[in-house]
Structure formats: C-alpha cells, structure tokens
Amino acid sequence: MKTTLRSLALRLLKLFIKLSFPNVSQITTVEFAAWLLDSAKLQPFVLDARSQAEHAVSHIKTAMRIDPVAPDLTALSTVSQDTPIVVYCSVGYRSAKVAQQLQRKGFSQIFNLSGGLFQWANETRPMFKDDEHPTQLVHPYDATWGKLLKTCYHAEN
Question: Is 90 exceeded by the pLDDT of residue 9?
C-alpha cells in the first residue's frame, strides 16, 4: 500500500474510532512520545490491548498486556483510579473498547493511542521485544489490517 493511501486509510480509521467511542479521549503518537520523554510529568500506566502473540513480537516499553476480548481488570486493582492510563492496540479499535470499559469501572484519566502501534511503528518510534531488547518488527494482525503497517516492519506470523 502506498504511503499516501496508507495515511488516508489510517486517518479514516481514526475518525471512525473517534466517532464510535466519542467518550474515550484520544492521544496522538506525538503527544504520547513527548509524555514518555518528560520525566517531570507523572508517567502513564501503559496497557497493550492485543493478543499474546502480537505482544510477544513487540510492544511499547513497560506496557502490560491486557486481553482485548475479556480484559481482566483485577490486574489493575493496585492502580489508583486517577492514574493516567494509555491503552493501545494495532490501530486503536480494540484499545478504545478496553478504554471504554476502564472508564465504566471509574478510571478517570484514560487515553486511547490514536493510530495504535502501527502508526507508532510507521513513525519509527521505539518498540521492544521485551523491556530490554529493541525491535522494529510488529505483528501485522492479519493480511488486511497489516497493509496499514509499512512492510519493512512486518514480523512473520
């Protein structure tokens, strides 16, 4: 998929997600990257709402995986409800659903990463296989959705 077509498809998808989840706050990859670099700012709790297979290939450093289909919110029992939480998935739909569930459970500072890990990767932002080993590879989810990810970042799945 050419860059302009990929960019257009991602913009339309982000608009669809924003309209589908109007009460979920979105954070751009630029805003999130700046936040992570700002040591003076309270750092967010980061949740990866993708499958175990996707998370194993790469994730944002310190991200805790949460099942997007049946999220176990008890894992967040030690997290204060006013702690900022950023949730991401491949493109933002699964993470928006999880963010919505967290809001319903009383968490007040929930942000969905607009464009998800695909946009994060396409912008050559840091990703890790585990929290110590950087990688540039991303699980493409499937052949269709993977077209939103630059081919050079595709992991074999």
Answer: yes
